[in-house]
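for the recovery benchmark. tokens below, seq after
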């Protein structure tokens, strides 16, 4: 395989990457990963994209007791994984966490709640919290599940900038990881959030058992939805979740190739690496050459994440800086 012919579209028009070329990226031999990384970074440089990396943070504002049966989630109705369960946090805790995230140069701060969708009282409460935050960075983001257009417009009117709602996996594989709602339910929420005038962050989890063809299809589905930011997660299998016994081992090199593929298929979207980036090990700083433009800093939903200072040191080692 000629790597350049397989991956480089004419005139740096990244939208010319076809599914077959995207699959070839994933099948690139490990011995050629450095060439592939150089190609990816060269294409970004040709488009004049910045080397600054954006940070985002989240707060698990309501945890546990979820009615959905997502096989990868500790908070799922079918999970026995240990996790904390609590009702909606007090507003001052959420606002204080947002202020701290801003001090750490986070560009977005997301309120995340468990469950298929919030009750109307919970949504009103979240809107009230958002309206109390200053209209400055970090911009408000929210991940509240499957919402209606009316609910999304309420959030927009309250001051929400971005809505996060993952597809989780490719359309034809979705029923293998969840049956209490559908892939289409999720895609519809993404589309309605766009209609409501919100920025969109959407992505999913790599390593749920999907095929390479399905991984490629997921990238094109996100491109078709024209999402502003793609959140890439690599599965952290948790004992007690249904996915844990059938976990897929993904090597650091395969992780990098996946990042490169998503970046080439979706060149107009931010590419944010969230859960699982610690599995890159010694390759972690290479994720930026692969195309990552943002990372999640701080704790994740039910597992610990990274310290902001450690992330700054990572950026420095990679010759990058934080987006201010």
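predicted aa per position
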């Amino acid at each position: 395989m000629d790597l350049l012919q397989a991956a480089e579209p004419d005139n740096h028009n990244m939208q010319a990457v076809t599914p077959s070329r995207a699959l070839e990226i994933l099948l690139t031999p490990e011995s050629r990963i450095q060439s592939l990384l150089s190609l990816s970074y060269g294409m970004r440089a040709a488009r004049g994209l910045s080397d600054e990396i954006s940070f985002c943070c989240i707060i698990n504002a309501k945890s546990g007791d979820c009615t959905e049966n997502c096989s990868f989630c500790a908070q799922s109705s079918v999970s026995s994984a240990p996790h904390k369960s609590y009702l909606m946090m007090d507003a001052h805790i959420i606002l204080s966490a947002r202020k701290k995230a801003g001090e750490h140069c986070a560009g977005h701060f997301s309120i995340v709640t468990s469950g298929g969708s919030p009750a109307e009282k919970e949504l009103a409460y979240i809107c009230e919290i958002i309206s109390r935050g200053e209209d400055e960075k970090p911009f408000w983001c929210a991940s509240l599940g499957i919402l209606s257009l009316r609910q999304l417009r309420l959030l927009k009117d309250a001051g929400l900038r971005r809505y996060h709602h993952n597809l989780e996996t490719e359309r034809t594989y979705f029923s293998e990881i969840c049956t209490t709602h559908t892939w289409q339910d999720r895609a519809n929420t993404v589309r309605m959030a766009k209609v409501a005038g919100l920025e969109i962050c959407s992505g999913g989890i790599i390593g749920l058992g999907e095929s390479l063809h399905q991984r490629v299809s997921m990238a094109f589905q996100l491109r078709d939805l024209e999402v502003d930011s793609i959140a890439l997660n690599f599965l952290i299998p948790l004992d007690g979740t249904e996915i844990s016994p059938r976990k897929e081992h993904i090597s650091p090199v395969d992780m990098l190739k996946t990042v490169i593929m998503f970046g080439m298929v979706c060149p107009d979207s931010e590419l944010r690496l969230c859960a699982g980036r610690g599995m890159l090990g010694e390759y972690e700083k290479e994720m930026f050459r692969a195309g990552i433009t943002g990372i999640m800093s701080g704790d994740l939903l039910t597992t610990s994440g990274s310290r902001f200072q450690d992330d700054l040191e990572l950026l420095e080692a990679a010759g990058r800086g934080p987006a201010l």
